[in-house]
Amino acid sequence: MTPSLTEINPQVALAPMEGVLEATVRELITAQGGWDFCVTEFVRVSHERLPLKVFHRCSPELRQGAVTPSGVPVHLQLLGSDPESMAINARVAAKAGAQVVDLNFGCPAKIVNRHGGGASLLRKPEQVGAVTRAVVEALKPLQLPVTAKMRLGFEDTSLAVENAQAIEAAGATQLVIHARTKVQGYKPPAHWAEIGRIAQAVSLPLFANGDIWTLEDYQKCCQASGVNQVMLGRTAMADPWLAARIKAYAAGQAFAETRFSDLLGLMLTWMQSGGSQYSERVRVMRIKQWLLMLVPRWGDLARKAFDQCKRLEEESQVIELLEAKGGAALMPS
Ligand SMILES: Cc1cc2nc3c(=O)[nH]c(=O)nc-3n(C[C@H](O)[C@H](O)[C@H](O)COP(=O)(O)O)c2cc1C
Asked: What is the pLDDT of residues 296-315, one digit of tens each?
């Protein structure tokens, strides 16, 4: 008998998010448990061979066995369209300590797409295949796996299956699908059923991504896509305990609901721990960005907190606000 979706132990991954999920936030979130791996912000590859320091800046974890301090594997993401340069820089990434290289076929940024990278590659499945194959071949002697992340397409989803097949045929070992086209940006809803259509056509492990904010969304996504492994991005910032809740659900166990004040506590913890390596101005800016990112999940609670925070300039004022709303920094374990 085929096991049900939840009987198969699902992996949950932390998404790459440029300017948001850098090493200190990756550590804070993965330390909450339930995360199987995370992916770095992208390293952009053009035509030059990048120095090692670029990879170490993007992922200090590469110097520590490519795992977060709490032991969760970190995959290094590359973004580029030229197979040869991608292959050369994948080897540099490996030298820097990367254990898994991930390829970005989904970035919607105009500047990236103008240079033929990110989501614009999805118009040419043969080039998606060529980039993937070049990196797979470059890393084969080192026995390092290559994974990929794509959107459903650029303007429409007509090439989604072809792109996934090209990635599989080129030798990637895993594929994350953000269930929207480039043109759809981040506009809800995510089209999870489209992932199911791709799953019929490939056999490499798939991860569903996009708008999985709650356990109920996870269940709906599993049903619509037939895929039970997921990657969480903004949704991880809005509920870092969702990964553990999904794991508990799959194991038939209960898991406490997240309270808004838990999140405020995590922000306070970040300011005092990982975030302390940044200037006060950066910390304050990042907390405002984080609060704004909570709005789709937490509605008025987050909107109000953001409105109250947006004109504050001093960190002490921000701390006072988060504490007044019930936030308490987590004690170091
Ligand atoms: C601010 C921001 C930065 C992002 N940076 C990256 C990136 O560097 N690489 C990548 O593959 N996707 C990137 N993404 C896309 C996310 O990984 C993810 O696919 C998307 O946010 C949908 O998932 P979510 O609904 O859980 O947020 C970024 C998204 C946002 C909002």
From this structure: 999 999 999 999 999 999 99
